[in-house]
Amino acid sequence: MFMNKAMTAHIICAVAAVYLLAAKAYKPFAVYLTIYIAVALLMANVDKIHNTSAMLLIVSLSYFVQKLVVLLMMGSFFARMTAIPYVLSAMQHMKIPDAAAVPIMVALRFFPTIREDYHSLKDSLRIRKVSLSPLQFIIHPVRMVEYLFVPILMKSLRTSDELAASALSRGFEHMNEQTILYPLKLKTLDYLVGTLSILIVAILFYLQFK
Fold first, then answer.
1. Is the full-model pTM beyond 0.85?
2. How many whole angstroms separate alpha carbon 150 and alpha carbon 147?
3. Are the CB atoms for 152 and 124 separated by under 8 Å?
4. How many Cα atoms within 13 Å fall on the side-chain side of residue 186?
5. Within 10 A of 153 (CB to CB), how many other CB atoms are there?
6. How far is residue 210's CA from residue 198's CA, in Å, rounded to a whole number?
7. Which of 3, 59, 65, 119 has its CA 20 to 30 A from that of 39?
């Protein structure tokens, strides 16, 4: 998040793009990379804007979008390449405390559920002939909040209660050692990727703070 130099930001995006290609996520790769390149071009030509306030606004939003795009790219890779049971097994192997493991598991289950709720709500609003186009968010922001965000928040509360009940029924509140259903071991490729990742991070820190 604090890699604010153009070169370091571009390298991070390139690494995330390679991860997506390795996961054969071609559509997210094309979409996110196009957005990133468009924002990068906008940032490169921001000095041509003579209004200081507009320039600061564009720079701030562009910086946020660049970081968000990279996070979404890595999130897409994680969702495609990792199953929830293996994440739990990995955290058990690493002896991560339940106070940290349970919130992570709930979050990983929570976001896909929110996405499904959003699509269901969008289909319901489309049947009622309510448009969710970006133009409607600009013209009628209050109505869009009422129609979209309030129902999603209400359903999120219900979903969080269900996930908490599910976690309790699976025995997450017990502090005894749990059985590992998916035994995992680090392989040669894992060590290579880990070493390469550490090397890339070290290079990025050097380029950022030299």
1. no
2. 7
3. no
4. 8
5. 11
6. 18
7. 119
